[in-house]
Design brief:
Order of helices and strands: HHHH
Radius of gyration: 13 Å
Shape: elongated
Strand content: under 5%
Low-confidence stretches: none
Helix content: over 70%
Number of helices: 4
Structural class: mainly alpha
Largest sheet: none
Oligomer: single chain
Mean pLDDT: 76
């Protein structure tokens, strides 16, 4: 059980880092310097919860491409909402 949790957190951290990088670049392109100090903390929390949840689901655990698509869709959704 502990090995599964450790593996889930490692994969989650990998997707979080890519999601943060893309989101920060897009955010700064659209909004400038407004929330540049708070945005990494907000995005880290959001992506950590998103990908940890996706890693717990058996179907998405076996398909990393599906997790990537879900992450990109979530970023696009956030851009449209904001």
């Amino acid at each position: 059980m502990k090995n599964e949790l450790l593996r889930s957190v490692k994969i989650t951290a990998l997707f979080i880092s890519y999601g943060l990088l893309v989101s920060l670049i897009v955010f700064f392109l659209f909004f400038g310097k407004g929330l540049q100090f708070l945005m990494p903390f907000i995005l880290f929390a959001v992506f950590f919860l998103l990908f940890l949840t996706l890693e717990k689901l058996p179907f998405t655990r076996r398909h990393p491409l599906l997790k990537f698509i879900a992450g990109v869709a979530f970023v696009v959704f956030l851009i449209i909402i904001i």
